[in-house]
Amino acid sequence: MTDTLAKEEKRLAKEAGCSVNEYLEQQYEAKYGEEPGQLLVLPHFAGAATPYMDTGSRGAVLGLTTDTDVSEIYRGCMEGVVYEMALNYRAIRPAGVHCTKLHATGGGARSAVWMQMKADMLNLPMTALKTVDAGTVGSAMLTGIAIGLFADLKDAADHMVEEVRTYYPRPEMHEKYNRIFRRYEQVYQAVRPLMEEQV
Q: Alpha helices, DSSP H only, in the chain?
């Protein structure tokens, strides 16, 4: 999306010696601090995975004004993904799943802003891991156990998983995000019927 909507920001980020993601985060923070955004973004730009499993769903950006800038749209996309995480977490809880901490890997784990946002919304500590490709490391851990290199998963994790930083939820921000989430959870049902294919 940054290639489409943030071409100028990509150029400026390169001049500033940072990624376009970092640049947009800085631009948003300069205007609004850590306050949640004003947009509701349904991040179904490639269809919807869990909990909907709806390949026909499409993305939506609600709340745009003539003053909305790219950093606000970027922030809204980040928040939309976090709200989707909250929907999924809520969906698995009736099955008895209760998390006390979550781990994150890959590119998103490098964003302190996004990690803190996840911790605040989910009201759970979020730990960024040094591991970039969790699937590969997980496979290597299981292989190590199978060949006797590690005694069990804990032993394998102790040797192969490195924690970088843990982000802790802030009650005041959790409440702010929760107020928005109560509106967000209505977006899919409101937008989806408008996306039906024309016959």
A: 2-5, 7-16, 20-32, 70-92, 112-122, 134-146, 153-160, 171-184, 187-191
